[in-house]
Amino acid sequence: MILDAFKLEGQVALVTGASTGLGAAIASALAEAGADVACHGNTHAPDATSEAIMKLGRKALAVTGDLSDRATPQTLIEQTINHFGRLDILVNNAGTIRRAPATEYSEEDWATVIEVNLSSVFRMAQLAGRHMIARGGGGKILNIASLLSFQGGITVPAYAASKGGVAQLTKALANEWAAKNINVNAIAPGYMRTDNTRALQQDETRNRQILERIPAGRWGDPVDLAGAAVFLCSAASDYINGHVLVVDGGWMGR
Predict the structure, then answer these.
(1) Domains, the chain
(2) What's the confidence (pLDDT) of residue 1?
(3) Is the model's pTM score more than 0.85?
């Protein structure tokens, strides 16, 4: 049955940045589809997300770690595999943003954004890929890109560079691992109501300009990514490799 291809029973997922926003919505969606989920928080355990998953009848594991620390990816992958015995799905959602004009952008902010948004994504995917290849049977890796994977943005040079890199990394890993039944894809969210976009939402002029360009006429909510995430983490997407799926209310088509 077609609908069975979207089910994730027996699968184990790890979602980074799952305390709130997009990550929490994705983690809950995977659990609704049947997966057990390890939920990552940067500094605090994502207990609310874990509790929501357990209320769905699925198993949850809360893990923490600062992804600006190069050692964190190894820890997160090992904790997940040690607890559940396997890892079938990795969602690289965690990210950060620092805003400043390019002429004033600090080396520290540049390094932090690139480390969290791009380098940690590679390390997480590399470790997950090694596990999936060694175990056999394949797996799913879903990266969270951005509209700024395609556009330049304003006063966010490191963020735009990192998300452009995520899109290209997604394609590069897909090229290597597709034949091993590991699907590597990405979602590029549009303007979503999250902490990262709070400054834009509170800027009356920018908020108006953004809404005027979105054909759907509204900001996206984290739950708007749920269906796309389940699709790209399920057998329904087995022949999709290296794709960046835009979920933006029509922004890019305007």
Answers:
(1) 3-248 (3.40.50.720)
(2) 61
(3) yes
